[in-house]
Specification:
alpha/beta, 6 helices, 18% strand, Rossmann fold, globular
């Protein structure tokens, strides 16, 4: 039997309830989902790669057949290394679509065997982004309703 394996990539800086929503949706479709955390030095993450890996592991500990990995370099190389032919991306709004479409086509140009699928979070999570969470956090605002409770405790203890 061939297992359906997907990779859900991102910087997860930090992981949000919206990300967890997409992970759960992807897990309902695929036998295994790798949550692939990009090193992403160009985005200048607020949290270290090690902290982001820990936060994602905390947030997904109760979801079966999820593996948290980190990578640097091309996403298609990460897909090949982990025997995945599917990339999962979340779409919150129409404004995400143009960027995600470009990235999806770029990945397809690098490896025609790898497809990208797009999943929508539930309406209650549609407005949440890591950028919004970081901005609120920097200004000492309340973020506990936007991120998993384990992640909230973690970021407040770093």
């Amino acid at each position: 039997m061939c297992k359906k394996i997907a990779i859900y990539p991102g910087t997860f800086d930090p992981i949000t309830n919206g990300h967890v929503d997409i992970i759960k949706r992807a897990r309902a479709v695929f036998d295994k989902v790798y949550v692939a955390i990009a090193q992403s030095e160009t985005k200048k993450p607020m949290f270290t790669l090690e902290d982001r890996v820990k936060m994602v592991k905390l947030a997904t500990k109760d979801i079966g057949n999820i593996e948290v990995i980190s990578f640097c370099g091309l996403l298609v190389d990460c897909c090949r290394k982990n025997n995945s032919q599917t990339i999962v991306r979340g779409l919150r709004a129409v404004s995400d679509f143009e960027y995600e479409l470009q990235i999806g086509y770029a990945n397809a140009s690098l490896d025609k065997e790898i497809d990208t699928i797009y999943l929508m979070p539930s309406l209650e999570n549609a407005f949440i982004s890591s950028t919004v969470v970081r901005d609120i956090f920097r200004h000492k605002g309340k973020i506990s309703h936007l991120i998993p409770k384990e992640v909230n405790a973690y970021v407040h203890n770093i």
